[in-house]
Automatic annotation (TrEMBL), chain A:
GO molecular function: 4 iron, 4 sulfur cluster binding; carbon monoxide binding; iron ion binding
Keywords from the UniProt entry: Iron, Metal-binding
Organism: Antarcticimicrobium sediminis
Single biological process term from Gene Ontology: protein maturation
Protein's name in the database: Hydrogenase maturation factor
Family note: Belongs to the HypD family.
Signal peptide (residue range): none
TrEMBL record, chain B:
Role noted for this protein: Involved in the maturation of [NiFe] hydrogenases. Involved in the biosynthesis of the Fe(CN)(2)CO cofactor.
UniProt GO molecular function: carbon dioxide binding; iron ion binding
NCBIfam families recorded: hypC_hupF
GO annotation terms (biological process): protein maturation
Species this protein is from: Antarcticimicrobium sediminis
Lineage of source species: Bacteria, Pseudomonadati, Pseudomonadota, Alphaproteobacteria, Rhodobacterales
Family as reported in the entry's similarity comment: Belongs to the HupF/HypC family.
Stretches of the chain forming a coiled coil according to its record: none
InterPro entries noted in UniProt: Hydgase_assmbl_chp_CS, Hydrogenase_HupF/HypC
Record-linked PROSITE patterns: HUPF_HYPC (PS01097)
Name of the protein this chain belongs to: Hydrogenase maturation factor HypC
Amino acid sequence: MKYADEFRDPTAAKALLARIADLTDEIGATSEKPVHIMEICGGHTHAIFRYGLDKLTPDGVEFIHGPGCPVCVLPMARVDECVQIAARPEVIFTTFGDAMRVPGTKTSLLQAKAAGADIRMVYSPLDALELARRNPEREVVFFGLGFETTTPSTALSIQQAAREELTNFSVFCNHITVPPPIKALLDDPHMLLDGFVGPGHVSMVIGTHPYDFIAQDYGKPIVVAGFEPLDLLQSVLMVLQQIRDGRAEVENQYARVVPEHGNPVSIAAIADVYETRPSFEWRGLGEIDHSGLRIRAKYSPFDAEEKFGIGYAAGERSVQEPEGCACGAVMTGRLKPTGCPQFGKGCTPEMPLGALMVSSEGACAAYYQYGGARAVEPAE
Amino acid sequence: MCLGIPGQIIAITDPARQMAMADVSGVRRAVNVAPVLSGAMEDLIGKWALIHVGFAMALIDEDEAEATLQALRDLGEAQEALEAMAQGQKALEVEA
Ligand code: SF4
């Protein structure tokens, strides 16, 4: 963890922290009765732990770590399906490195690669496209993963593949969208939430209006935030100000990057290539209505689910989470990572049992990396 | 993969595919600029963009680029992105 003195602008950080402390008092929030602020994005979760913002802010402010890490909410069945596709001899399976260690029912992609499958880590779907051009005799499949930040990249890549009439490129689409799980969480009677810090880079694509329902229908404040510690502190302050004033609005702290209406080219590409699935499974959260995307019929030659007859194209599937894993409870904020019996024992970043331990943006991995591991060291 | 990394557009490489060369922390990487294209492609040369998995998603100014890069370095995400780029390059070179 860092101290405010080490921030890029320590004076500004300290001033923000002082105002946050005052407002917390003014609202009457205490460690027994805190305000619960959910940061939706996994990047924010990581930044909060990295900079120790959870410790620098008063006890009356409690961060709840949201479902915004796409690797963490990837269901085991989808990993199994990746492994299944990758096992085909004609396939070159391409993926972001982040997904390599996510455990499937039997193996992760990393283990499948070690066992001989042609699995390649790429930086971009553009690399997968290039592989398809260079290897016309092979089937190149890209594992499309992520929220609205990465969705435009696969949409634009599929459009490009269509223009080039590539017949050996397809996407295994696991793109998910941010607003539906937020709605699902707000509908959960167990959930205690007073406000949100909204994702910066997702909002850069979709703009701020998709969050209107949070303010209008649920009466909760949301502030779209950047990634620097000062951005996050400023955004927490803005949420607290709304709570004090009894306001519920969508505010944009990150306007220097996030346009109100998002990125038109990306929005158009997503709408052209993808449609909403009736429901999609989230690890730890279950099926959530209208929360996932699939490739439209007009692009079906580029849909790996159609091409290989797997996934939702194959009909009913059942998934069990590993024994003793509390990912669901952690994901919904009902349990702290350290409250999971597996934390630091059966589940570590090196040998993850649950997906929240895999990515540095997962709450369990962030806890573990930045001091939470101490909680499991045996007492001397 | 979720956080964009700032890069400077230094050349247009394939206008038909809307591809440009970007300098990301000293590493050269081919990027697609379709999302930030509003006029002539050449106008982008010298501009800074937030690059997400190979796509320039938003134009930013140089100060914002510097501040974002610093935050990403602090988080270890800058290094992660650069390694991913190197891996992507390697994936293309592996013999089928
Ligand atoms: S410690 Fe591991 S098993 Fe437990 S909730 Fe976290 S990721 Fe899941």
